[in-house]
Description:
Blueprint lengths: L1 E10 L2 E11 L4 E5 L6 H9 L4 E8 L2 E2 L5 H6 L2 E4 L11 H9 L3 H14 L16 H14 L4 E5 L7 H16 L4 E6 L4 H5 L2 E6 L2 E7 L6 H8 L2
Parallel strand pairs: 3-8, 3-9, 6-7, 7-8
Antiparallel strand pairs: 1-2, 1-4, 4-5, 9-10
Helix pairs in contact: 3-4, 3-5, 4-5
Bound molecules: adenosine-5'-triphosphate.
GO biological process, one term: L-amino acid transport
Keywords: Amino-acid transport, ATP-binding, Nucleotide-binding, Transport
InterPro entries: AAA+_ATPase, ABC_transporter-like_ATP-bd, BCAA_Transport_ATP-bd_LivF, P-loop_NTPase
Amino acid sequence: MLELTGLSAGYGRTTVVHDVDLGVADGTLTAVLGHNGAGKTTLLRAVLGLLPVQSGRVVLAGEDVTTRPPHQRVRRGVAYVPQGQQSFGQLSARENLQVVADAHGRDGRRRTDEALDLFPALRDLLGRQAGLLSGGQRQQLAIARALVTGPRLLVLDEPAEGIQPNVVAEIYGAISTLLAGGGLSVLLVEQHLGFAVEHAAQYAVLATGRVVHRGAGGGPDVVPEVRAALAL
Ligand SMILES: Nc1ncnc2c1ncn2[C@@H]1O[C@H](COP(=O)(O)OP(=O)(O)OP(=O)(O)O)[C@@H](O)[C@H]1O
């Protein structure tokens, strides 16, 4: 679904992410682990086209999109949920979903229902102003809104950050359900060991913008080596 080859990106003349090779196979999860400032968000922004690539290639569903603007990547099936549980705070939860659903007609309405099935707690909160929701509820809303676009690749930046554990479990339960359903690929960035590595088909550890460790097939067995790489 996604193939990054020799990807370097940064800000102005500064390179933050160096020569990254990484893939997300169809219908699977790829996890990128790394501490604060390792370059995880920068990598995602380059994948989305929000930052120009300094060198290397971004191939999405077989097509080279390295120089394509973000909206064209979105049209090819990428949905991005940035860090920080972003929503339109003044709008209700329902309106947050509706603004996206309206752009997708009947599919948008169907996908809204499916997303609410995935996050049933949101159904009772639809009338509430998004800015008044808890961090966990806003994160669920942000993921639901991304799903309403009908993505083939869901890109998640630290969805568990700052969220209480029971809601994190709900969010990861939903991601597991989506993966089990097939058809959706996930690129997930996390600081901490846990769901990401346990469920990853591929994983990479990023430190100062470089991949310092990688592997295929996550699960409990790989946790010690990933922990060791994170401690580098
Ligand atoms: N807009 C920017 N302009 C210049 N440098 C930036 C910018 N955003 C991030 N950086 C720098 O790029 C490096 C990597 O930051 P990035 O946000 O990609 O890391 P991260 O792994 O996502 O960290 P975190 O877990 O804190 O989000 C840091 O040194 C940071 O200071």
